[in-house]
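User: quick one, fold this
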Amino acid sequence: MPTFWMVRAGEAGYLINDFERASVVGIGWDGAGDFSEVASLDDMRRRIDTAYPDMKPLARAVSAGSAFKFRSTIKIGDRIVSYDPRAREYLIGTVAGDYEFKPGVIPDYNHVRAVRWDGRVSRDVLSQSSRNSLGSLVTIFQPGDDVRDELERALKGEKSGATVVPPLPAQKEELEVIRQNMAENAREFIKDMIRALSPDDMEMLTATLLRAMGFKARVTPKGADRGRDVIASRDGLGLEAPRIVAEVKHRPGTAMGAPDIRSFLAGLREGDRGLYVSTGGFSREAKYEADRSNIPATLVDLEDLAELVVEHYERFDSDGRALVPLIKIYWPKG
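Assistant:
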């Protein structure tokens, strides 16, 4: 049975009309040149690595995989779908030609394959399950046989019994599961970004966070700071309580122990509030030392830090946003 593929028509589907007009699907990565002589995935990886050295390694690997699928894995006779987000319609057809490098056939994308388009299917007639499967932002992927079968039935005008506007209660549950999965993945990606910061950047991030929380904060000069990496207060002079003293340890593989906390607390004076940030976390004994301290002290590990960044990100200054660049995603209200 022919394989079923989704090929995205560029960012936000801006090339979908060109795909339909020229009877093709296409991909970018034009800087890597003609793929006609690429014989293996390793060859494609070398092409992408050479052409896009500034791209992150993971992004290069994903790009090479997608480009090789387009070049060699997709076959004549396979079924193809692409999405028109403005019309909320899926364009469906059959691959009619092998890979070609043809600049000028469609804007921006020089790598193309001929397609015989059969027609369009409205997103509104599909089940929520198929919508979810087709929602991946990967350039090229296989949505699955069930999705293909539902699209084929809809293309023939057969009702799938899946008109879903507004969502039914069961579909709301599916949406909530997807939302939770996305939120969990987002938290992990944010923690990855924080872990990748340098120790100096971590101190700057702590100061940015405190400023977003309404304090005037500064990173102390390098040297013997006696556990005072960041100083913050309401007035910026330390004359108005609370006066926050923060120590920042960016050692993802090392948990801070009780001696570290005792040393930090010993450097605090009356009126101070201690903040200890450790991306490696804290031992049980360290948490006990903070709990029993006469001077209030808060321990913040990587999980806590990521949550605080998200909670206060709207008030981050430009320096902080540059350290951890995030965007807001809007989600349907349940």
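User: anything notable?
Assistant: The CA atoms of residues 227 and 263 lie 8 Å apart.
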